[in-house]
Structures are given as structure tokens and as C-alpha cells.
Amino acid sequence: MLQSMTGFGSHTLQGKDVNFTVDIKSINSKQFDFILKLPPELKEKEKENEIRQLVMNALCRGKVECVISIEKKNGNCSASLNKDLIFSYYNELKSIAETLGEKGNLLEIVMKMPEVVESARFELDDLLWEQLRQSIQEACNKLTKSREEEGAALAEDFALRIRLILQYLDAIEPMESERIDQIRGRLNKSLNDSRDQWQQFDENRLEQEIIFYLEKLDFTEEKVRLRKHCAYFMETMKEMQNGKKLSFITQEIGREINTLGSKACHAEIQQLVVRMKDELEKIKEQLANIL
Prior knowledge:
The protein has helices spanning 40-44, 48-59, 83-100, 106-110, 126-172, 176-193, 203-217, 220-236, 243-264, 267-287; strands spanning 7-14, 18-27, 32-37, 62-72, 79-81, 117-119. By secondary structure, it is α+β, with helices and mostly antiparallel strands. Strands 1-2-4-3 form a four-stranded mixed sheet. A two-stranded antiparallel ribbon has the order 5-6. The longest helix is centred in the middle third of the chain and has 47 residues, at 126-172.
């Protein structure tokens, strides 16, 4: 089952004194790249490493940003004023205002300064921490679900692209006998045009050389391998965390398509090869976002 590396999950924990909200979002990245934003109360408890390990175990890969915010409930976690800081801000502003001859409501300005209003701290006990861990896990689960939903949409698109590649391959087959006849005709014409330049040559040996040349241009093996690679791609999409493996398979598909194009010597076949390449490039672009 395909999973996109792009997703979002959120969960809110309703506590007695506070509410925790956990928001997690992710985008594509080759490795696990983690950004964590915590309120001061959790930083003081040194919970960063535990949260990182919890999220990494749940999400494995991608550029992940986790934001945990706290909403303190009225009556349980009241705010207080940092009087020392207020006096300091006020005196500094007053000195500057007198120097500049400016007037204004300095106290109003001071009350908007950072850390003037201090929120009351709460105790992160073991029970609340365990509930928060469950909230983080739930947010990760929701993100994983959104990844799976986007992955399912991408799987449908990949399947369509693979079917188109196989349809173009089927369209090549009716042209193969015509292709060989055209190549043989061009070779014979070139030889006949230059026959006068040759005193004598072995026509049987010439025919053998033409057959050998045409065998080198035969792409039956490439077609067989291309079909097998496409079937393997479809089968691999059912596996978990298969993005890198699918990328390797697309490289093999591209190699066979390129060989078809180099051996074609036929304008219409080469046009179909170009269409195959176009569909394969669309798959590669989206594979960069697959887990």
C-alpha cells in the first residue's frame, strides 16, 4: 500500500487545568527530518528526545513538524504580572520619551512588551505526560491516515501511467514487420546504388551480415523485460514503505524504453517511445513524495 510523505494530523487533550493540542504535518524528504515546537513547561521537563523518538517510530520518514500548544483554563491557571520587568520597561521608556520630548501612555505600551504577563505554571505529572504521549500518537495516526489517502490517489495515477506504457508497447507490435522490411529495403538500396564500386562480393556472406545486423536491432527481449518490470512495479505498490524500491524499478523501465528507442529506426515507433518516456517521467515526479 502506497503512502505519501505529505500529511497532517491533529489531536486535542482535554485536561483538568490545561488543554494540549498536538499538530503534526509532514512533507517529502529523503530522511527523517524533525522540527519540534514546545511550550516552556515541556522544555523544562526535557521531553524533546522522548517526543522525537515517539514521532520517528510512528512516521519513519519525511520532513516532520510537530507543534504542541497549551491552553490554560480560566480559574485554574491564573496569570500574574512581572512587576520588576514592568518597572524596568517603564523607566527605560520614560527616559527615552523625555529625551525625545514625546508624550504617550507609557504603561499601555509596557503592558504589550514580552514576558510582562506571566502565566501560572502547571505541574506535568506522570498521568498528564502519559495522556500527552497518547495525544501525540493519535496525531501521528491521523497523519498516517491522510498519507494513506493521498497514497491511494497516487497509486491510481501510477496504475494509469503503467497501463498507458503497456498500451503504447502493444501498439508497436503491428509495426515490427514493416520496420524490418524498411530497414532491409534501405540496406539493399544502398548496396545496389554502390554495386558498381565493387568488383565482386559474396552475396551469401552479404545476406548473413544483413541478418546479423537485423538481429542486433531486434528488441523482443527488451519488450519482454519491459512487461515484466511493469508487472513488478504494480506488484510492489502493494508493499509497505516501497518508495525507494519503486524508484529502482522505474530506472529499469526507463532503461528498456531507451533501448527500444535506440533500436527502433522507425519514426512512428519512436513517437510511441517518446510517449512512454513522458508517462514514466510523470511517475518519477510523484515517486519523490512516496514513503
